[in-house]
Write a structure and sequence with these properties.
There is one protein chain. The protein contains eight helices and seven strands, in the order βααββααββααββαα. It is mainly α and about 260 residues long. The protein is elongated, with a radius of gyration of 21 Å. The protein starts with a strand and ends with a helix.
Length: about 260
């Protein structure tokens, strides 16, 4: 068995991956709150932004954490198409869960369906990302820890969507985002605890791309997207602010001679 190191760079990758997960969760919660206060095309656009933020945050969390993953006795590379597929799955399945909550008439049923769908999407992204690993050996999983990681993902997703439906205060959203980031990170490291690697020494060159050649630039790009989206959300007026502005305009027009 190869020795697994989940933090080859010390605390840098675990802390940074947690920050990415928390930022993605915060954006998703704020955008969902905006969506529920809007209607028509505006609601749809806010929900799309929420799904992309959460999917991007979770994916970036996973692969930033994987930048610190190492196995003694073998180098690690990544299958590029599978890695991209894991990102698409994260966004699409998380999007389905967010839209279920955003448009569901029965909130309890929508919450359960959305939480389950989003949680399964998070877990699918994680294990698709793991399937993209290329190394000299075989990756083996502990079924009980895999099941536990999926359960954590579903519970975390359900809790996040509940927060989006019930929490409006920015401070409460921030606290919920920190908890969600911790839950998503826990799911990741529980899934990684399920992993063991049977090394098969070989002199052949591994297929795929090295993490610093492919994962790192993509993670930086997606992280930049999260920060730009955060700026956009922060600068966009809320429904209450737009209503107040429209009311002030009407008063101004009425008072004008």
């Amino acid at each position: 068995m190869g020795h697994l190191d989940h933090a080859t760079s010390g605390w840098l990758t675990p802390v940074l991956s947690y920050v990415m997960a928390a930022i993605g969760a915060a954006l998703a919660l704020r955008c969902t709150v905006r969506a529920l206060a809007a209607g028509g095309r505006s609601r749809r656009n806010w929900l799309i932004t929420a799904a992309s933020a959460l999917g991007t945050g979770i994916w970036t969390m996973h692969f930033v954490a994987m930048l610190g993953f190492g196995v003694t006795g073998t180098e690690i590379r990544y299958n590029v198409p599978l890695t991209i597929l894991s990102l698409l799955v994260a966004m699409l399945v998380v999007g389905a869960g967010v839209f279920a909550v955003g448009y569901g008439r029965d909130r309890r049923r929508a919450l359960l369906l959305g939480g389950f769908t989003t949680g399964v999407g998070v877990a699918s992204m994680h294990y698709l990302g793991m399937a993209a690993l290329r190394l000299h050996g075989d990756v083996v999983y502990d079924p009980l820890l895999v099941a536990l990681s999926v359960a954590i993902a579903v519970v975390a997703a359900t809790a996040a969507l509940w927060a989006a439906l019930n929490i409006k205060s920015p401070v409460a959203v921030a606290v919920a985002s920190l908890v969600m980031g911790a839950a998503v990170s826990s799911m990741h490291y529980t899934g990684m605890a399920a992993v063991s690697v049977r090394i098969s020494p070989s002199g052949s060159e591994l297929p795929g791309a090295a993490a610093m050649q492919f994962i790192f630039p993509l993670a930086v790009g997606l992280g930049s997207y999260l920060f730009l989206t955060a700026a956009f959300v922060a600068l966009s007026p809320t429904a209450r602010e737009r209503a107040a502005y429209a009311s002030a305009e009407r008063l101004t027009e009425t008072a004008a001679p």
